[in-house]
Amino acid sequence: MKSLPTVKSSYAPQSMHQVFLNNLFTIIEENIDASLNVEFLANSMAVSKSTLNRKLSMLTGASASELIKRHKLKRAIKLLSSGKNVSETAYLSGFETPSYFIQCFKEAYKITPKEYSKNYSYELL
Asked: What is the pTM of this model?
């Protein structure tokens, strides 16, 4: 008896974890402003804050607040690279104050946003 030929499909279903993360990052992107917080994110994902943090820690090694901050900083890099000044970038990236933005940026990238704007455009992407 002949065996059936193997059918290769270009369709690769996403895992439940990948779907969860895609939804999470979509919600972050669509709601990125100073009021975006872990509680809002948890409610949007229909889970408790502790469940959200536990799941994100398992999947990414980071907490929800850390992922929000990382996403804001990635947006800040794009804005600085496009010529926005530090204050504009801080607010457009979802930080409440420019001083907190500068602190977070320096912790993440080891330089200030102003130094990045002057010297390192496109190198940290």
From this structure: 0.80
Longest dimension (CA), the chain: 74
Query: Is residue 109 in some structural domain?
Result: yes
The answer to the question of residue 4 being in a domain is no
53-106 confidence digits (pLDDT tens): 999 999 999 999 999 999 999 999 999 999 899 999 999 999 999 999 999 999
Structural domain contains residue 3: no
Residue 2 pLDDT grade (very low, low, confident, very high; cuts 50, 70, 90): low
Q: Which CATH number covers residue 87?
A: 1.10.10.60
